[in-house]
């Protein structure tokens, strides 16, 4: 059964399907509607809840041991820096290298 009251049941479903040797079918033409959150406070609360939900699902589904959870908590600042570097700085650097000169 899925953990009630959490997000990420779709992720857990995909993990279960793959465990039994099946591959999930992804159809890029499918469109999904999501609620747009305009308020920063609501957005941050939503993201925190989503992260906690994913952690609960991952611990349950992938038998995430306590030592590994502690390692992730200790390494969290490095994980955040890596994500920031990969998603923001690398893109800006590559754009700068791609277009190093401004044309008049």
Model description:
- Keywords: Membrane, Transmembrane, Transmembrane helix.
- InterPro entries: Nucleotide-diphossugar_trans.
- The chain is globular and about 35 Å long.
- The chain folds into two domains: 64 residues, no CATH class; 31 residues.
- By secondary structure, it is mainly alpha-helical.
Features:
single chain, 104 residues, mainly alpha, 3 helices, globular
List the helices and strands and how they pair.
Elements (H helix, E strand, L loop, with lengths): L8 H11 L20 H22 L4 H33 L6
Structural class label: mainly alpha
Query: What's the Cα radius of gyration?
Result: 19 Å
Domain unit count: 2
Low-confidence stretches are 99-104
Tally of DSSP helical segments: 3
Order of helices and strands: HHH
Summarize the structure.
The protein is mainly alpha-helical. It is 63% helix and 0% strand.
């Amino acid at each position: 059964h899925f953990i009630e009251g959490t997000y990420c049941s779709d992720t857990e479903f995909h993990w279960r399907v793959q465990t039994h040797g099946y591959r999930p079918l992804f159809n890029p033409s499918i469109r999904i509607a999501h609620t747009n959150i305009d308020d920063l406070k609501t957005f941050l609360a939503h993201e925190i809840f989503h992260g906690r939900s994913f952690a609960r699902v991952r611990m349950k589904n992938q038998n995430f041991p306590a030592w590994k959870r502690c390692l992730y908590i200790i390494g969290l600042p490095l994980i955040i820096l890596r994500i920031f570097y990969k998603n923001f700085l690398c893109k800006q650097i590559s754009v700068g290298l791609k277009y190093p000169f401004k044309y008049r």
